Automatic annotation (TrEMBL):
Binds 1 [4Fe-4S] cluster. One of its GO terms (biological process) is DNA replication, synthesis of primer. This is DNA primase large subunit PriL. Its cofactor is [4Fe-4S] cluster. Regulatory subunit of DNA primase, an RNA polymerase that catalyzes the synthesis of short RNA molecules used as primers for DNA polymerase during DNA replication. Stabilizes and modulates the activity of the small subunit, increasing the rate of DNA synthesis, and conferring RNA synthesis capability. The DNA polymerase activity may enable DNA primase to also catalyze primer extension after primer synthesis. May also play a role in DNA repair. HAMAP family: DNA_primase_lrg_arc. The gene is priL. It comes from the Archaea. Heterodimer of a small subunit (PriS) and a large subunit (PriL). [4Fe-4S] cluster binds at residues 234, 306, 315, 322.
Length: 356
Protein backbone atom coordinates (compact mmCIF):
# COMPACT_ATOMS: atom_id res chain seq x y z
CA UNK A 1 0.00 0.00 0.00
CA UNK A 2 1.66 3.17 -1.21
CA UNK A 3 1.46 6.69 0.28
CA UNK A 4 -0.29 7.72 -2.95
CA UNK A 5 -3.11 5.29 -2.15
CA UNK A 6 -3.44 6.65 1.36
CA UNK A 7 -3.70 10.21 -0.01
CA UNK A 8 -6.13 9.24 -2.77
CA UNK A 9 -7.97 6.12 -1.58
CA UNK A 10 -10.70 6.37 -4.25
CA UNK A 11 -8.19 5.53 -7.03
CA UNK A 12 -8.71 2.23 -8.82
CA UNK A 13 -5.10 1.32 -7.99
CA UNK A 14 -5.81 1.89 -4.28
CA UNK A 15 -8.74 -0.50 -4.44
CA UNK A 16 -6.55 -3.05 -6.21
CA UNK A 17 -3.84 -2.62 -3.56
CA UNK A 18 -6.37 -3.41 -0.82
CA UNK A 19 -7.57 -6.46 -2.75
CA UNK A 20 -4.00 -7.62 -3.41
CA UNK A 21 -3.20 -7.36 0.30
CA UNK A 22 -6.09 -9.75 0.92
CA UNK A 23 -7.53 -7.51 3.62
CA UNK A 24 -10.50 -8.98 5.45
CA UNK A 25 -12.77 -6.07 6.40
CA UNK A 26 -14.45 -8.07 9.17
CA UNK A 27 -11.08 -8.58 10.86
CA UNK A 28 -10.14 -4.95 10.31
CA UNK A 29 -13.26 -3.51 11.96
CA UNK A 30 -13.10 -6.06 14.77
CA UNK A 31 -9.41 -5.70 15.62
CA UNK A 32 -8.05 -2.41 14.31
CA UNK A 33 -9.27 0.39 16.50
CA UNK A 34 -7.04 2.92 14.75
CA UNK A 35 -8.84 2.24 11.46
CA UNK A 36 -12.30 2.52 13.07
CA UNK A 37 -11.31 5.78 14.77
CA UNK A 38 -9.91 7.35 11.61
CA UNK A 39 -12.97 6.22 9.62
CA UNK A 40 -15.22 7.88 12.18
CA UNK A 41 -13.04 10.99 12.01
CA UNK A 42 -13.43 11.09 8.21
CA UNK A 43 -17.22 11.09 8.50
CA UNK A 44 -17.50 13.48 11.45
CA UNK A 45 -15.08 15.97 9.94
CA UNK A 46 -17.06 15.80 6.70
CA UNK A 47 -20.12 16.94 8.62
CA UNK A 48 -18.28 19.59 10.60
CA UNK A 49 -16.02 21.20 8.05
CA UNK A 50 -16.65 19.70 4.63
CA UNK A 51 -13.22 18.00 4.61
CA UNK A 52 -12.09 14.57 5.86
CA UNK A 53 -9.51 15.66 8.40
CA UNK A 54 -5.79 15.17 8.84
CA UNK A 55 -4.39 11.89 7.52
CA UNK A 56 -3.25 9.17 9.92
CA UNK A 57 0.55 8.84 10.07
CA UNK A 58 0.33 5.18 8.98
CA UNK A 59 -0.59 4.73 5.32
CA UNK A 60 -2.31 1.43 5.97
CA UNK A 61 -4.64 2.95 8.56
CA UNK A 62 -5.33 5.94 6.35
CA UNK A 63 -6.12 3.83 3.30
CA UNK A 64 -8.31 1.29 5.13
CA UNK A 65 -10.22 4.03 6.91
CA UNK A 66 -11.73 4.99 3.54
CA UNK A 67 -13.69 1.75 2.87
CA UNK A 68 -14.69 1.67 6.54
CA UNK A 69 -15.95 5.27 6.34
CA UNK A 70 -18.05 4.28 3.32
CA UNK A 71 -19.45 1.42 5.38
CA UNK A 72 -20.34 3.85 8.20
CA UNK A 73 -22.08 6.20 5.77
CA UNK A 74 -23.98 3.23 4.33
CA UNK A 75 -25.11 2.04 7.73
CA UNK A 76 -26.51 5.46 8.62
CA UNK A 77 -27.99 5.81 5.11
CA UNK A 78 -29.09 9.45 5.37
CA UNK A 79 -29.13 11.33 2.09
CA UNK A 80 -27.61 14.44 3.64
CA UNK A 81 -24.72 12.50 5.20
CA UNK A 82 -23.91 10.63 2.00
CA UNK A 83 -23.83 13.85 0.00
CA UNK A 84 -21.72 15.72 2.54
CA UNK A 85 -19.30 12.83 2.89
CA UNK A 86 -18.77 12.40 -0.87
CA UNK A 87 -18.35 16.12 -1.22
CA UNK A 88 -15.80 16.26 1.62
CA UNK A 89 -13.69 13.42 0.19
CA UNK A 90 -13.65 15.19 -3.18
CA UNK A 91 -12.85 18.59 -1.66
CA UNK A 92 -9.95 17.15 0.35
CA UNK A 93 -8.50 15.35 -2.66
CA UNK A 94 -8.90 18.52 -4.73
CA UNK A 95 -6.95 20.56 -2.17
CA UNK A 96 -4.23 17.93 -2.04
CA UNK A 97 -3.61 17.62 -5.76
CA UNK A 98 -3.95 21.35 -6.32
CA UNK A 99 -1.21 21.88 -3.72
CA UNK A 100 0.93 19.15 -5.31
CA UNK A 101 0.57 20.64 -8.78
CA UNK A 102 1.66 24.08 -7.60
CA UNK A 103 4.64 22.86 -5.55
CA UNK A 104 7.90 24.00 -7.05
CA UNK A 105 10.21 21.30 -8.38
CA UNK A 106 12.61 21.81 -5.44
CA UNK A 107 9.82 21.29 -2.94
CA UNK A 108 8.48 18.14 -4.56
CA UNK A 109 9.40 15.14 -2.51
CA UNK A 110 11.81 13.05 -4.55
CA UNK A 111 10.51 9.74 -3.31
CA UNK A 112 6.82 10.62 -3.20
CA UNK A 113 4.77 9.34 -6.10
CA UNK A 114 2.81 12.23 -7.57
CA UNK A 115 -0.43 12.42 -9.46
CA UNK A 116 -0.59 14.35 -12.69
CA UNK A 117 -3.56 15.86 -14.50
CA UNK A 118 -3.04 13.28 -17.19
CA UNK A 119 -3.30 10.36 -14.76
CA UNK A 120 -6.39 11.88 -13.15
CA UNK A 121 -8.07 12.30 -16.54
CA UNK A 122 -7.26 8.69 -17.40
CA UNK A 123 -8.56 7.53 -14.00
CA UNK A 124 -11.98 8.97 -14.70
CA UNK A 125 -12.15 8.16 -18.40
CA UNK A 126 -11.92 11.83 -19.35
CA UNK A 127 -8.84 11.64 -21.58
CA UNK A 128 -10.78 11.60 -24.84
CA UNK A 129 -12.85 14.62 -23.88
CA UNK A 130 -9.97 16.86 -22.80
CA UNK A 131 -7.28 18.27 -25.09
CA UNK A 132 -4.30 20.23 -23.82
CA UNK A 133 -3.68 23.49 -25.68
CA UNK A 134 -0.86 26.04 -25.32
CA UNK A 135 -1.86 27.41 -21.95
CA UNK A 136 -5.25 25.87 -21.23
CA UNK A 137 -7.50 22.89 -21.97
CA UNK A 138 -10.20 22.33 -24.56
CA UNK A 139 -12.97 20.20 -23.14
CA UNK A 140 -15.60 18.43 -25.25
CA UNK A 141 -19.05 19.81 -24.46
CA UNK A 142 -20.34 16.37 -23.39
CA UNK A 143 -17.53 16.00 -20.85
CA UNK A 144 -18.10 19.56 -19.66
CA UNK A 145 -21.82 19.01 -19.13
CA UNK A 146 -21.22 15.70 -17.36
CA UNK A 147 -19.18 17.37 -14.64
CA UNK A 148 -20.02 21.09 -14.59
CA UNK A 149 -23.77 21.01 -14.06
CA UNK A 150 -23.44 20.75 -10.26
CA UNK A 151 -21.25 23.85 -10.11
CA UNK A 152 -22.85 27.08 -9.04
CA UNK A 153 -21.99 30.45 -10.40
CA UNK A 154 -22.86 31.99 -13.73
CA UNK A 155 -19.40 31.29 -15.11
CA UNK A 156 -20.25 27.58 -15.24
CA UNK A 157 -23.41 28.02 -17.29
CA UNK A 158 -22.96 26.80 -20.82
CA UNK A 159 -24.48 29.99 -22.24
CA UNK A 160 -21.66 31.97 -20.66
CA UNK A 161 -18.95 29.86 -22.29
CA UNK A 162 -17.50 30.13 -25.75
CA UNK A 163 -18.27 26.95 -27.59
CA UNK A 164 -15.93 26.33 -30.51
CA UNK A 165 -16.11 23.18 -32.62
CA UNK A 166 -17.91 21.36 -29.84
CA UNK A 167 -15.26 22.30 -27.28
CA UNK A 168 -15.03 24.73 -24.37
CA UNK A 169 -11.82 26.29 -23.19
CA UNK A 170 -10.98 25.86 -19.50
CA UNK A 171 -8.08 26.97 -17.36
CA UNK A 172 -6.17 24.34 -15.40
CA UNK A 173 -7.91 25.27 -12.14
CA UNK A 174 -11.33 25.01 -13.84
CA UNK A 175 -10.42 21.58 -15.18
CA UNK A 176 -9.46 20.52 -11.66
CA UNK A 177 -12.96 21.51 -10.51
CA UNK A 178 -14.42 19.09 -13.08
CA UNK A 179 -12.07 16.39 -11.79
CA UNK A 180 -13.27 17.13 -8.26
CA UNK A 181 -16.80 16.38 -9.42
CA UNK A 182 -15.62 13.13 -11.00
CA UNK A 183 -14.11 12.15 -7.63
CA UNK A 184 -17.34 13.00 -5.86
CA UNK A 185 -19.25 10.77 -8.27
CA UNK A 186 -16.74 7.97 -7.67
CA UNK A 187 -17.04 8.23 -3.87
CA UNK A 188 -20.83 8.36 -4.11
CA UNK A 189 -20.97 5.39 -6.50
CA UNK A 190 -22.64 2.37 -4.96
CA UNK A 191 -23.64 4.09 -1.70
CA UNK A 192 -25.32 2.88 0.37
CA UNK A 193 -23.42 -0.38 0.30
CA UNK A 194 -25.09 -3.53 1.48
CA UNK A 195 -23.17 -4.21 4.71
CA UNK A 196 -23.03 -7.74 6.13
CA UNK A 197 -23.95 -8.09 9.82
CA UNK A 198 -20.48 -9.45 10.56
CA UNK A 199 -19.10 -5.99 9.74
CA UNK A 200 -21.99 -3.84 10.98
CA UNK A 201 -21.99 -5.42 14.44
CA UNK A 202 -18.50 -4.03 15.16
CA UNK A 203 -19.45 -0.48 14.24
CA UNK A 204 -22.41 0.18 16.54
CA UNK A 205 -20.56 2.72 18.70
CA UNK A 206 -19.27 4.67 15.70
CA UNK A 207 -22.74 4.71 14.09
CA UNK A 208 -24.27 5.95 17.32
CA UNK A 209 -21.75 8.78 17.50
CA UNK A 210 -22.47 9.85 13.93
CA UNK A 211 -26.22 9.76 14.54
CA UNK A 212 -25.76 12.00 17.57
CA UNK A 213 -23.64 14.39 15.53
CA UNK A 214 -26.30 14.48 12.82
CA UNK A 215 -28.97 15.23 15.41
CA UNK A 216 -26.83 18.01 16.92
CA UNK A 217 -26.38 19.60 13.54
CA UNK A 218 -30.13 19.47 13.06
CA UNK A 219 -29.74 19.02 9.35
CA UNK A 220 -33.32 17.94 9.01
CA UNK A 221 -34.56 21.23 10.50
CA UNK A 222 -37.63 22.96 9.16
CA UNK A 223 -36.65 24.97 6.16
CA UNK A 224 -36.87 28.71 6.64
CA UNK A 225 -34.68 29.82 3.80
CA UNK A 226 -35.69 31.31 0.48
CA UNK A 227 -32.95 30.91 -2.12
CA UNK A 228 -34.59 30.84 -5.57
CA UNK A 229 -31.31 29.77 -7.24
CA UNK A 230 -31.66 26.45 -5.42
CA UNK A 231 -35.34 25.85 -6.17
CA UNK A 232 -36.29 22.69 -8.07
CA UNK A 233 -36.81 23.24 -11.80
CA UNK A 234 -40.60 22.90 -11.52
CA UNK A 235 -40.88 25.67 -8.91
CA UNK A 236 -38.44 27.89 -10.78
CA UNK A 237 -40.66 27.57 -13.86
CA UNK A 238 -43.84 28.34 -11.90
CA UNK A 239 -42.24 31.32 -10.16
CA UNK A 240 -41.08 32.56 -13.51
CA UNK A 241 -44.63 32.36 -14.87
CA UNK A 242 -45.94 34.23 -11.81
CA UNK A 243 -43.39 36.98 -12.28
CA UNK A 244 -44.14 37.31 -15.98
CA UNK A 245 -47.79 37.78 -15.09
CA UNK A 246 -48.89 34.63 -16.91
CA UNK A 247 -52.09 32.81 -16.01
CA UNK A 248 -51.60 29.73 -13.81
CA UNK A 249 -54.04 26.86 -13.46
CA UNK A 250 -55.35 26.26 -9.96
CA UNK A 251 -53.10 23.19 -9.38
CA UNK A 252 -50.01 25.16 -10.45
CA UNK A 253 -50.92 28.09 -8.22
CA UNK A 254 -51.48 25.67 -5.34
CA UNK A 255 -48.09 24.00 -5.96
CA UNK A 256 -46.04 27.20 -5.94
CA UNK A 257 -48.00 28.73 -3.04
CA UNK A 258 -47.61 25.64 -0.83
CA UNK A 259 -43.94 25.39 -1.71
CA UNK A 260 -43.26 29.02 -0.79
CA UNK A 261 -45.28 28.70 2.42
CA UNK A 262 -43.45 25.54 3.46
CA UNK A 263 -40.00 27.06 2.97
CA UNK A 264 -40.89 29.89 5.32
CA UNK A 265 -42.42 32.77 3.34
CA UNK A 266 -45.13 34.73 5.11
CA UNK A 267 -48.53 35.43 3.60
CA UNK A 268 -47.57 39.10 3.09
CA UNK A 269 -44.37 38.13 1.26
CA UNK A 270 -46.20 35.73 -1.04
CA UNK A 271 -49.00 38.23 -1.72
CA UNK A 272 -46.39 40.84 -2.61
CA UNK A 273 -44.67 38.40 -4.91
CA UNK A 274 -47.91 37.43 -6.66
CA UNK A 275 -49.18 40.99 -7.01
CA UNK A 276 -47.32 41.48 -10.29
CA UNK A 277 -49.62 38.85 -11.76
CA UNK A 278 -52.90 40.28 -13.01
CA UNK A 279 -54.64 36.96 -12.34
CA UNK A 280 -54.09 37.32 -8.60
CA UNK A 281 -56.44 39.60 -6.75
CA UNK A 282 -54.87 40.48 -3.40
CA UNK A 283 -57.81 39.33 -1.28
CA UNK A 284 -58.19 36.01 -3.11
CA UNK A 285 -54.46 35.35 -2.93
CA UNK A 286 -54.28 36.24 0.76
CA UNK A 287 -57.24 33.98 1.47
CA UNK A 288 -55.74 31.11 -0.51
CA UNK A 289 -52.32 31.38 1.15
CA UNK A 290 -53.82 31.66 4.65
CA UNK A 291 -55.95 28.63 3.83
CA UNK A 292 -52.93 26.65 2.62
CA UNK A 293 -50.91 27.40 5.74
CA UNK A 294 -53.81 26.27 7.94
CA UNK A 295 -54.70 29.71 9.31
CA UNK A 296 -58.24 29.66 7.98
CA UNK A 297 -58.64 25.91 7.67
CA UNK A 298 -58.02 22.85 9.83
CA UNK A 299 -55.38 21.57 7.43
CA UNK A 300 -51.86 22.75 6.73
CA UNK A 301 -51.17 21.83 3.11
CA UNK A 302 -47.85 20.58 1.74
CA UNK A 303 -46.61 20.96 -1.81
CA UNK A 304 -47.46 18.03 -4.10
CA UNK A 305 -44.98 15.18 -4.58
CA UNK A 306 -43.20 14.79 -7.92
CA UNK A 307 -45.67 12.11 -9.07
CA UNK A 308 -48.59 14.55 -8.64
CA UNK A 309 -46.64 17.37 -10.27
CA UNK A 310 -45.99 15.05 -13.21
CA UNK A 311 -49.62 14.06 -13.60
CA UNK A 312 -50.65 17.75 -13.76
CA UNK A 313 -47.89 18.62 -16.21
CA UNK A 314 -46.13 20.85 -13.67
CA UNK A 315 -42.94 18.78 -13.62
CA UNK A 316 -40.69 20.48 -16.17
CA UNK A 317 -36.97 20.82 -16.94
CA UNK A 318 -35.97 17.81 -14.82
CA UNK A 319 -32.28 17.53 -14.04
CA UNK A 320 -30.00 14.84 -12.61
CA UNK A 321 -30.97 15.52 -9.01
CA UNK A 322 -34.64 15.04 -9.93
CA UNK A 323 -33.83 11.41 -10.70
CA UNK A 324 -32.80 10.86 -7.08
CA UNK A 325 -35.72 12.44 -5.22
CA UNK A 326 -39.48 12.07 -5.14
CA UNK A 327 -40.54 15.45 -3.75
CA UNK A 328 -39.70 19.05 -4.71
CA UNK A 329 -38.93 19.79 -1.04
CA UNK A 330 -36.40 16.95 -0.96
CA UNK A 331 -34.77 18.53 -4.01
CA UNK A 332 -34.56 21.90 -2.29
CA UNK A 333 -33.26 20.38 0.96
CA UNK A 334 -30.55 18.51 -0.91
CA UNK A 335 -29.49 21.71 -2.68
CA UNK A 336 -29.41 23.63 0.60
CA UNK A 337 -27.42 20.88 2.31
CA UNK A 338 -25.00 20.88 -0.51
CA UNK A 339 -24.49 24.63 -0.78
CA UNK A 340 -21.68 26.48 0.94
CA UNK A 341 -22.85 28.85 3.69
CA UNK A 342 -21.93 31.92 1.65
CA UNK A 343 -24.08 30.71 -1.24
CA UNK A 344 -27.18 30.66 0.95
CA UNK A 345 -28.34 34.25 0.67
CA UNK A 346 -31.96 34.44 1.64
CA UNK A 347 -34.05 36.28 -0.89
CA UNK A 348 -35.70 38.32 1.86
CA UNK A 349 -32.35 39.39 3.35
CA UNK A 350 -31.05 40.26 -0.08
CA UNK A 351 -34.00 42.59 -0.61
CA UNK A 352 -33.34 44.23 2.75
CA UNK A 353 -29.66 44.67 1.90
CA UNK A 354 -30.53 46.22 -1.46
CA UNK A 355 -32.88 48.71 0.18
CA UNK A 356 -30.46 49.80 2.92
S1 LIG B 1 -38.85 15.72 -10.63
FE1 LIG B 1 -39.84 16.65 -8.90
S2 LIG B 1 -38.47 18.28 -8.24
FE2 LIG B 1 -37.81 17.69 -10.30
S3 LIG B 1 -38.90 19.12 -11.63
FE3 LIG B 1 -40.19 17.29 -11.48
S4 LIG B 1 -41.58 17.73 -9.79
FE4 LIG B 1 -39.91 19.20 -9.65
Amino acid sequence: MKPLHARYPFLQSAREAVEAADVDLVTVVREEEAVRTRALDRVETALDSGRVGAPHRRDRVELLSYPVARVLVSLIDEHVLTRKYARAEAATAHERFEAEFTETTELKSRDREQLSIRTLLAEFGMTEGVRETDDAYSVAVGTYLAYATEERGDEWRLVNRTLRDGEIELSESELLVLIRQAIRDRVDEGLPLSVPDAIASHLDAECEQIRERLADLDLTRDIDTVVPDLFPPCMTALLDQVQKGEHLEHHSRFAIATFLTTIGMTTDEIVELFQVNPGFGEEATRYQVDHIRGKTSPTEYSPPACSTMQSYGDCVNKDDLCEQISHPLAYYEAKLDDADEEEIIDWRERDETAQS
